[in-house]
Amino acid sequence: MRRFPSVLAAALAATSLLPAPALAQSARSGESAAATRVPAKAVGGNAIRGKATFYELQSGGGNCSYPSPPAGNLYVALSPGEYAAAAACGGYLNVTGPRGAVRVKVVDQCPECPAGHIDLSRTAFARVADPGKGMVGVTYRPVRNPRVGRPLSFRVKEGSSQWWLALLVIDHGNPLTSVEVKAAGGAWRKLARADYNYWIAESGMGRGPFAVRVTDTRGHRVTAKRVRLAPAVVQRTTTKMY
């Protein structure tokens, strides 16, 4: 997927959504309207004026690979430039439309959406507009330090072993900029983020357990200890980002 350069990308670069090329394919169904090119316009205070449609996830948590949709089914898919190869995953947007406002979690990419076109869950769309409209004008902005209410969780991807590790971070609030892992007696090692939102150590990190150091776009940095090499298991911790 190619990146769409726009005023939107420049505005989001100054906040918590960082522009970059995106390659992931979306697990999507039930589009409410065909995507049309709509101009994105910065309206001050990091707010963006654009358009919204709605859809429903086929399964799981979209391109961001979360095990399930967020509570209340309040989620959003972003254009490739805003999704930014998963850099936006796990962040939140405040969206305002004709009917009201809603806060949604970024869980997915909308490959066919131009910049400024967001695709909300049906539940979220109904909070801001009449679903019968199909597409409406909205204003949206990234949320700084959203209240998540839960500590960090981690999921080791299926197929991970002592020779290859893929790690998903859940419930961090702000988008992430860095994930580092350290095995017992070893040094910190930065992982590379895949466009499906797992953080990868191509040559593995050994048998674990690991310490995991997480940094977000607002400069918060925390360390969770004793994350096990246990594929397909969501490991809950007591560590919060802020």
Report the CATH C-level class of the largest domain. Mainly Beta
Structural class: mainly beta
Total number of distinct structural domains = 2
- For the record, give the distance between the C-alpha atoms at the N and C termini, rounded to a whole number: 34 Å
- Poorly predicted runs of 5 or more residues: 1-27, 32-38
Oligomer: single chain
H/I helix tally: 3
C-alpha geometry: elongated
The overall pLDDT average reads 87
Q: Determine the CATH superfamily of the largest domain.
A: RlpA-like domain
Write the layout of secondary structure elements.
Elements: H1 7-13, E1 28-29, E2 41-44, E3 47-57, E4 75-78, H2 80-83, E5 92-96, E6 101-109, E7 117-121, H3 122-128, E8 136-142, E9 153-156, E10 165-170, E11 176-183, E12 189-190, E13 192-193, E14 199-201, E15 210-216, E16 221-227, E17 234-236
Parallel strand pairs: 3-7, 4-6
Antiparallel strand pairs: 1-3, 2-3, 3-8, 4-7, 5-6, 5-8, 9-10, 9-17, 10-14, 11-12, 11-15, 13-14, 15-16
